């Protein structure tokens, strides 16, 4: 395993930046071990709901974790709003960094992650090779 720390800047798209970091590293498999920071926009898909909900405002990233492949990422995140309410779910595209995001990626040399349709779940699920 190879560690890759990242710092994202205001205006960066969180999900796109994580996928781009894996591509730039030349690896084909990785995990986000943890992430903290802040967002101005979060896109979270809650359990059993087909589309993400957009949250706007001053949001703190409390946790961020998941797998990354050249096919995309499967990330889960919890955020809190300015009143301390906590929400979490599947991270969608369009999460915009407010001040900073600090992440630790684990790159997995010799591994390849892909996403393939799984008839049992109906979703594109992780395949490890």
List its salient traits.
single chain, 129 residues, mainly beta, 60s Ribosomal Protein L30, Chain: A, 6-stranded antiparallel beta sheet, two-stranded antiparallel sheet, 9% helix, 60% strand, PPC_dom, PPC domain-containing protein
Task: Give a description of the structure.
The mean pLDDT is 97. The strands form 2 sheets. Strands 1, 2, 3, 4, 5 and 6 form a 6-stranded antiparallel β-sheet that branches. The protein has 129 residues and is mainly β. 9% of the residues lie in helices and 60% in strands. The protein has one helix spanning 14-25; strands at 2-8, 30-45, 53-69, 72-80, 86-91, 96-107, 113-117, 124-128. A hairpin with a 7-residue loop joins strand 2 and strand 3 (53-69). It has 1 helix and 8 strands; from the N terminus they run βαβββββββ. It has one domain (2-128): 60s Ribosomal Protein L30, Chain: A.
Overall CATH class:
Alpha Beta
Largest sheet: 6 strands, antiparallel
Tell the overall outline.
globular
Instruction: Give the radius of gyration.
Output: 14 Å
- The helix/strand series, from N terminus to C terminus, equals EHEEEEEEE
Distance between the amino and carboxyl termini: 15 Å
Annotated CATH architecture: 2-Layer Sandwich
**CATH fold descriptor:** 60s Ribosomal Protein L30, Chain: A
What is the average per-residue confidence, as pLDDT, rounded to a whole number? 97
Task: Provide the CATH superfamily.
Answer: Hypothetical protein, similar to alpha- acetolactate decarboxylase, domain 2
Regions with pLDDT < 50 over 5+ consecutive residues?
A: none
Provide the structure class: mainly beta
Count of helix runs = 1
Helical fraction equals under 10%
Q: What is the number of beta strands?
A: 8
- The number of domains: 1
Beta-strand portion reads over 45%
Protein name: PPC domain-containing protein
Pfam families: PCC
InterPro entries: PPC_dom
Domain PPC: 1-129
